[in-house]
């Protein structure tokens, strides 16, 4: 029965971000067929940030109207929207409308907005729901969340997305990649391999995965074999009562020493929450949330926005290896966290600094594109792939450990955990958008004809 609950929690986690992750990996097939071209990634970045109105609304409701929202009907709603939106996307993503001065992919952009709301809102609904299960299943949920990036990446590899071949050509070849365009004259021309199956089939697969997520969530709530894994039935009532008590205490302006740091049932009888052998002060909690925002900014927005610039100069194979193995590193880090759940703030800080250092190397190689260091050596390709894997591995471990720590603080802490995840991702995306799309500080190279000095 425990194994069944682990499997369902993992399946539930997969549905958290699989639709938007799937959109990103499918871009090479979508872009040539729509009028927006390679401006689509920029549009998606803005759309995803606008979709943060979903988690913002839920966070404000938990703050000012505690106990009013129940995650379960919200989750049923957003997952059902995800199922319908991906299904419609499979049939209408090519459809355009004439708006203003030209054609636009109205259906694609509108449905992408719905999917963005689904995935962004999952951060502040899926995590708090996991409070209803035993603590060990939270890490399994994070494994599923990591697989939400790996699964569509593997399917895209099988599909043959983005595989390029250099063939002889005498005409001028115009290429576009990422947010940059270039032209070149030479004997080689880049030709992208035809996909093994269409984008329509890929979107239908995403819809099926959302149906599986919905089924997993349904069983987590109602399957008799899972019922004994739930916490007390009084959990929701108790959580709401604690939140209201904490709000009344804040109105009385009690001193920091007398007030609980975060809402949890334990704060009714003790004033400080102890993690292991340490007592976390308010300053330490601020440190945890700052680290959480920083780590998610790097892993969800800053570095992914320059992944193609950092890897493609070393070859198409290096790019696909870095993307796939780094996607594998996420659930691996979650599995390690399940076996070795170290909660030391010192270790958290060391891993954050280490991961940030590897991220700095990735950013430097992206800035040097199309001629980064060691471009003419196999060591360069191996190094960039290894750097991406270690970067994702270390910071994913940090994210899981923070989630486990905040889970012990109670339902409200996990709501704020999801909100800070989205805040960090939003700040990272908004900071990188002008650098990549407006000022074009990062330059792509021709995959077949770029010449770099040795």
In which order are the strands of the major sheet placed? Answer: 1-2
Provide the gyration radius in Å.
23 Å
Query: What is the mean pLDDT?
Result: 81
Helices and strands, in N-to-C order? HHHHHHEEHHHEEEEHHHEEHHHHHH
Could you outline the blueprint of secondary structure elements for this entry?
Blueprint lengths: L1 H13 L3 H8 L1 H4 L9 H11 L2 H12 L6 H22 L4 E3 L2 E3 L1 H17 L3 H4 L6 H24 L4 E5 L4 E5 L2 E5 L3 E5 L6 H24 L1 H4 L7 H17 L22 E2 L2 E2 L2 H21 L4 H5 L4 H24 L5 H24 L9 H32 L1 H28 L16
Helix pairs in contact: 1-9, 1-10, 2-7, 2-9, 4-7, 4-18, 5-7, 5-18, 6-7, 6-10, 9-15, 13-16, 13-17, 13-18, 15-17, 16-17, 17-18
Task: Describe the protein.
The chain is built from 18 helices and eight strands. The protein is mostly helical and 454 residues long. Strands 1-2 form a two-stranded antiparallel ribbon. It is globular.
Nutshell version of this structure?
By secondary structure, this protein is mainly alpha-helical.
Keywords:
454 residues; mainly alpha; two-stranded antiparallel sheet; 65% helix; globular
């Amino acid at each position: 029965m425990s194994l069944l609950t682990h499997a369902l929690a993992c399946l539930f986690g997969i549905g958290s971000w699989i639709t938007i992750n799937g959109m990103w990996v499918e871009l090479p097939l979508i872009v040539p067929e729509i009028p927006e071209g390679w401006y689509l990634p920029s549009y998606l970045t803005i759309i995803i940030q606008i979709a943060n109105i979903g988690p913002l609304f839920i966070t404000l409701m938990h703050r000012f109207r505690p106990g009013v929202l129940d995650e379960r009907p919200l989750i049923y709603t957003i997952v059902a929207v995800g199922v319908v939106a991906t299904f419609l996307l499979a049939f209408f993503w090519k459809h355009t409308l004439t708006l203003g001065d030209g054609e636009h992919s109205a259906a694609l952009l509108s449905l992408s907005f719905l999917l963005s709301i689904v995935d962004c809102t999952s951060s502040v609904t899926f995590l708090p729901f996991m409070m209803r299960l035993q603590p060990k299943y939270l890490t399994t949920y994070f494994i599923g969340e990591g697989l939400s990036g790996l699964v569509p990446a593997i399917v895209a590899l099988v599909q043959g997305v983005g595989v390029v071949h250099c063939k002889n050509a005498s005409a001028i070849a115009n290429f576009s990649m990422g947010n940059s365009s270039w032209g070149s004259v030479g004997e080689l021309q880049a030709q992208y391999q035809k996909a093994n199956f269409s984008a329509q089939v890929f979107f239908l697969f995403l819809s099926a995965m959302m149906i599986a997520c919905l089924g997993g969530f349904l069983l987590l709530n109602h399957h008799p074999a899972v019922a004994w894994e739930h916490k007390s039935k009084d959990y929701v009532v108790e959580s709401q009562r604690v939140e209201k008590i904490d709000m009344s205490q804040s109105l009385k302006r009690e001193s920091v020493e007398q007030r609980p740091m975060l809402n949890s049932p334990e704060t009714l009888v003790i004033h400080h929450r102890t993690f292991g052998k340490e007592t976390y002060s308010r300053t330490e909690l601020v440190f945890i949330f700052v680290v959480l925002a920083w780590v998610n900014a790097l892993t969800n927005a800053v570095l992914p926005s320059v992944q193609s610039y950092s890897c493609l100069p070393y070859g198409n194979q290096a790019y696909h290896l870095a993307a796939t193995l780094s996607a594998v590193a996420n659930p691996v880090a979650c599995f390690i966290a399940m076996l070795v759940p170290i909660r030391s703030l010192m270790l958290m800080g060391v891993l954050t600094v280490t991961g940030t250092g590897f991220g700095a190397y990735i950013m430097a190689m992206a800035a040097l594109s199309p001629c980064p260091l060691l471009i003419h050596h196999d060591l360069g390709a191996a190094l960039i792939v290894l750097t991406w894997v270690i970067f994702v591995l270390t910071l994913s471990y940090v994210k899981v450990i923070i989630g486990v720590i905040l889970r012990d603080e109670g339902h409200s802490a996990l709501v704020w955990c999801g909100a800070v995840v989205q805040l960090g991702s939003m700040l990272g995306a908004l900071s990188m958008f002008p650098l990549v799309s407006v000022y074009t500080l990062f330059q792509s190279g021709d995959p077949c004809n770029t010449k770099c000095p040795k």
